[in-house]
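Weekly structure sync - notes
Attendees: PM, LS, DV (DV joined late)
Agenda: review two folding runs queued last week.

Item 1: First target. Sequence and structure tokens pasted below for the record.
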Amino acid sequence: MFSTFCVLLVCAQLHFLFSIFTVGLALQSWLNRIWSSTALTQPSYSSLLVPVALGIYWNTTQFYIFYNTGLTSSKYILILKYLLDILILVASLALNRLLIHNILRQVKVVITRRSTYCLGMAALSIGLASFYYFPYAFDNAQLSWTQYLIKPQISFWASNNYGQIGYSSLIYYIGYLFDYIPLTTVSSAFKPALFILILLCCFYTFEQIRYKPLWLFSALYFFILFFSAFGQWGAFVTGKPSIYGVILSIVFFASFLKPFEEVKFNEVYLYFSVAAFSGIITIPYMAMFSLFVFFTSAEKNILTRKFRNLIVVAFFPLFVAASYATSLSTIRLQLVC
């Protein structure tokens, strides 16, 4: 049993590393090729967060299409999913070799910083301890719905639950691979990746406001989050899907902490979209924050155009959220009637 749990843990991290981060790097090379303005000019924690966000966007879109075309029930779903990921990676290596090299060079600079790998090991250790002491995720309707897609006989949640579909796209494939293990346990294997994501959010936040030393403020913020109810109950114990959305929404908020002329709106659009995919609960908060930024800024003409672009880029996650809300309203109406 212990060896099975170890294999599950390793497979979950490899899935995140390949299907989220590595495929995200490949997608970033295409983004840089089409829009050169999206290329990062200097090493920063955006070089780690942007690929993660792109990978989440790709996996969520892919999963949504698979689900709506009935492919999630196919016995070849894992082959199809990883074949598409490999094709994107191979095409990027063949056609965007120089762009990939530049992206990897920036990634190397960031991850070889002493603060990154030291605090990264601490975050990884916390994630491993979380999986060891609490090898489950619960308080989680999204998980129940995803479990229904894998084994409907052990889950009652048959209705469309798009609230955190980004979370479903993360855990579904490993859950399908280990279908003999309840998905509540399989999903907890992603807790190490979750704590790494929380740490990257902390680094990114203080990098934006340029507090020095960066490692100290990032470490303080990380442990404040960890010892709060958010970290203890939300991440360490339950591993709730909405935690992913909240973390990505914090990254969205932090994008505006630098001087206005330095804000990279292409990243703002991306972080908003993946936060909406990962937790529908974050959408009203991000919308309210966007209104606050708009009405308190002296650059309203520029922001009008930028937020119009945001709506266009985030149309798909907003559409998915609206579909979920409509579905939920229909279910409640049926229960009332």
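Item 2: Second target, run right after the first with the same settings.
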Amino acid sequence: MLAAALALVIERRMALLRATALPIAALVLVGIAMQSVQSALPAELDPNVPPDPAAARASSQLLLLMLVQLALVAKLAVATHRVIYLGPGGVSSGVLQPWGRRELRYIAKAFVVGIVGMAAAVPYLIVTSGAAGAGSGAVLGLIVVAPLLYVPSRIALILPAAAVDHPLDIGGAWVMSGGNGWRMVIIVFAVPFVVTLPLAWIAARIAYPFSLLLDVLAFACTWFSLAALTLAYSELARPASPRGMSTAET
């Protein structure tokens, strides 16, 4: 499946570029603006010092930029899902792609995935905090991480479904991904981590503005990660398909 995702990204690269060029360019500019605004914020807050009006304005600007960033990421994700699942005809023919209810629904679904994942991890966090001194930190660490990754990975199928206007709730996604939980962890978390970690490591060691080139490359890697999730949904949503994705495909 990962090989198929890469092949589709390469095959439909021009459609992906057309559909996501403006969001990517805007995200780069927003990132630059956020760095500038963050430099105006104090490193530490002192409760004994009166609030600085300039710092308050910077905080408001940073919040606004974060909301804009969220909207742009949603546009990038929805467009990528649609190009991979529906083909180049799944998005508008022009460079300027409309932003509307579909993207808003995608954001809402993403928040649902995050909230459910955190809620599922609460019992594990309680158990591990009570056994913190038991001397089995590595094992407990795995117990904590497992639900944090496993549960949201299983229900992440609602994201590509929302992007292509298919009705799918959390329960349906959980049933659909049955037997493929850890494969979904690989697709949702492991693949993006492995792909973007080297870029982040290099970007932290080269001077600005050359690091912006790596930012653009990271967005191209995002195409691949989203394509893998889209193909997972496409495979598991087939009524006549077997209930599992083969290891070879993953």
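Discussion on item 2: The CA atoms of residues 155 and 173 lie 5 Å apart.
Action: LS to circulate a short write-up before next sync.
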